[in-house]
Amino acid sequence: MAHFTKPAAGSWTQNYPELGTEPVDYTDSIDPAFYEDERQAIFRRTWLNVGRVNRLPKVGSYFTKELACVGTSLIIVKDREKQIRAFHNICRHRGNKLVWDDYPGEETSGTCRQFTCKYHAWRYGLDGELTFVQQEGEFFDLDKSRFGLKAVRCEVWEGFIFVNLDPEARPLVEYLGPLAKGLEGYPFDQMSEVFSYRAEVGSNWKLFIDAFAEFYHAPILHQKQAVKDEADKLAGFGYEALHYEIAAPHSMISSWGGMAPPKDPSMVKPIERELRSGLFGPWDRPDIDGLEPLPVGINPARHKAWGVDEFEFFPNMSLLFWAPGWFLTYHYWPTAVDKHIFEASLYFVPAKNARDRLAQELAGVTFKEYALQDANTLEATQTMIATREVTDFPLNDQEILLRHLHKTAQRIVEEYRNGRAH
Ligand code: FES
Ligand SMILES: [Fe+2]
Questions:
Q1: In this protein, which residues make up the domain named Rieske (predicted)?
Q2: Pocket test for ligand 1, best of 117, 123, 149 (most atoms within 8 A of CB)
Q3: Is residue 8 part of a domain?
Q4: 300 in a structural domain
Q5: Considering its fold, how many domains does the chain have in total?
Q6: Do residue 146 and residue 258 come from a single domain?
Q7: Residue whose CA lies nearest to ligand 1 atom number 1
Q8: Which residue spans within 70-129 are E strands per DSSP?
Q9: In the chain, is it the N or the C terminus that has fewer CB atoms within a 10 Å radius of its CB?
Q10: CATH number at residue 115
Q11: Interval 303-320: pLDDT, tens
Q12: 270 and 409 in a common domain
């Protein structure tokens, strides 16, 4: 299983000379000043995925998104023309948060015909227009057309809703670039059964991406997930990816992972055999079009042993495609230099019977267990790099995407600082 071909440059990392091979400085994950600049230079200026169109099934469907990283709350809504729009969640009268339920800091969702402020009942249409002012005659020359909700750039790619706080930002598709282009046509819309969970994690947002963007740790950290013989074998092999690709600022890793179904059923736990499912997802592929052949961007090496591709759309979205026919997203929303909200969503073709459903549930809980094992190391890492006793860390060739992530964040913040200095 080990020893896949490396590029002619000698290694994946040397294939991208701008990455260098020297140890990487992790001050970017502990320095509060760096975090503040990252919020301005990265999160306020890039396209951020806030979910999929599934969350807005009909006219008037909406959800709110609390974005501490850009210092605002947004309303995402489907208007009467079925266009998806985003607005700052702020009433134009005196600034009350417009949409929330019991606690103003908690996200909410629902369906409505219009938004009504809880304070003095100003009302806004789904397109953000101010439509009603309580005791309008008491105001002075109030031109309602000037007091609509403040809009935020919002564009949709393959059913993924993105927002951008920068009115000057280039179009989404251009930003997502060739890696996203290669995924177009994947049957995303047919995978409408969603299992989600979220957690607050005590680490910098980049550290959790680090943990997902390399599988070097998998045979070690996750060894308890396999039966003992198999775990020993995997640790002995070590880990090598099939392929890496960088199209800055985004990147991807293509990996083997042939456990769905496993060649030898004794490799996996009894419950996995019983439910025909596990970490790699349900073993039985859904019967839908669009998976055969896969879009060109998935399994780019067209390797027979292919199991999963993970795309890192900068800054904070991971999109994973699994060989058995389902996909997964991770999002990492910073709330402080050493804290973030982690969100994971698994997307399946809706179950046709109880067996399918149980297979999906098992994949979901297996994932949660894995992610907890990862999250567990993150807080331990965060507290120790925060000591600054060691600041530079050697990253190996299978950690190329981490090198790329940190270098990208550092470059963007540096350019922002230089721009501010002039
Ligand atoms: S603050 Fe919203 S109506 Fe007054
Ligand atoms: Fe992991």
A1: 47-163
A2: 117
A3: no
A4: yes
A5: 2
A6: no
A7: 94
A8: 72-78, 84-88, 109-111, 115-116, 123-124
A9: C
A10: 2.102.10.10
A11: 988 999 999 999 999 999
A12: yes
Could you tell me if 151 and 192 lie in one domain? Answer: no
Place of tokens 């502990």: 30
Is the domain of 131 the same as that of 251?
no
Whether residues 153 and 179 fall in one domain = no
Strand partners, 162: 49, 155
390 pLDDT exceeds 50?
yes
Residues 154 and 178 occupy one common structural domain: no
Question: Residue 28: CB partners within 8 Å, gap ≥ 6?
Answer: 34, 38, 204, 206, 406, 409, 410, 413
Does residue 381 line the site of ligand 1, with CB under 6 A?
no
In this predicted structure, what is the pLDDT of residue 260?
77
Ligand 2 center from residue 369 Cα (angstroms):
10
120 lines ligand 1 (CB under 6 A): yes
The secondary structure of residue 242, as a DSSP letter, is S
Ligand 1 atom with the smallest distance to the CA of 122 is: 3
Q: Whose CA is nearest to atom 3 of ligand 1?
A: 120
Question: What is the structure's pLDDT at 3?
Answer: 67
Same domain for 137 and 56? yes
Using a pLDDT cut of 90, give the percent of the chain over it. Answer: 85
Strand order through the sheet with 115-116: 115-116, 123-124, 130-132
The token duo for 316 is: 């904070």
